[in-house]
Design brief:
By secondary structure, the chain is an alpha/beta fold. 20% of the residues lie in helices and 38% in strands. The protein has one domain. It has helices spanning 4-7, 36-41, 60-65; strands at residues 10-17, 20-26, 33-34, 48-53, 55-56, 68-72. Mean pLDDT is 83; it is low at 1-10.
Length: 79
């Protein structure tokens, strides 16, 4: 039987502080990528977004316009 948890990329909302929303994108044993598909899963409205992921497919101008900051998640083993 296939576990649905193994098929889903985990998009963890870490919280909101000073109108900044924090997200951690994690897929066990795989490289994660910040892209438009990931942004579509985010439900929290904020002035700024800090997203932890391994790679980014968004262009710099788009990220600046929407106040998105990428933080590399490499090396994060737990929260």
């Amino acid at each position: 039987m296939i576990s649905w948890m193994n098929l889903i990329t985990h998009h963890l909302f870490l919280g909101k502080h000073n109108d900044t929303a924090y997200y951690f994108q994690n897929e066990q044993d795989k490289i994660t990528t910040l892209d438009h598909a990931f942004l579509a899963t985010m439900k929290t409205k904020a002035e700024q977004y800090v997203i932890y992921a391994d790679n980014c497919l968004l262009i710099k101008d788009f990220m600046t316009k929407h106040n998105i900051i990428l933080r590399k998640s490499q090396g994060i083993t737990r929260f």
